[in-house]
Amino acid sequence: MALTGLEIYKLLPQTNCKECGYPTCLAFAMKLAAKQAELAACPYVSEESQTQLAESAAPPIRLVTLKGRSGEAKANAGCIRIGRKLAKSPNSRRRRRKAARSGRFSLGSSASR
Fold it and tell me: Regarding the domain delimited by 5-57, which CATH topology (the fold level of the hierarchy) does it fall under?
């Protein structure tokens, strides 16, 4: 889940040093929340804060259960491996369905769309 500007501000060092290019840490936090600035611009942010901010910026991943001839497997939703190609685009829906019917899918995919 994305953090708000104030939640990001609480994780910053709050020194208002201006080394990031913004007048205050709050202004920098608001730009981070709007994805208009990079965290690397702050030289004083702690490793713990960097980790926490990186985790909150990651998109949520939904796990799905795939059923095939060889049994069940848990995988991330969003892409399917067909042979050597990775099909992610909505245009590949036909290929995904065909692969799901034939049982040729691998982990990291969702066969139903």
Answer: 3-methyladenine DNA Glycosylase II; Chain A, domain 3 (1.10.15)
- C-alpha 31/C-alpha 5 separation (Å) is 8
Contact assessment for residue 107 and residue 73, using Cβ atoms and an 8 Å cutoff: yes
Query: CA-CA distance, 94 to 14, in Å (whole number)?
Result: 52
Query: Please, how many CA atoms are within 13 Å of residue 41, restricted to the half-sphere of its CB?
Result: 20
User: First vs last Cα of the chain: how many Å apart?
Assistant: 24
Give the pTM.
0.53
Residue 109: predicted pLDDT: 45
Neighbours of 56 (CB within 10 A): 13
β-partners of residue 82 are: 85
Tell me the domain boundaries of the chain.
5-57, 63-102
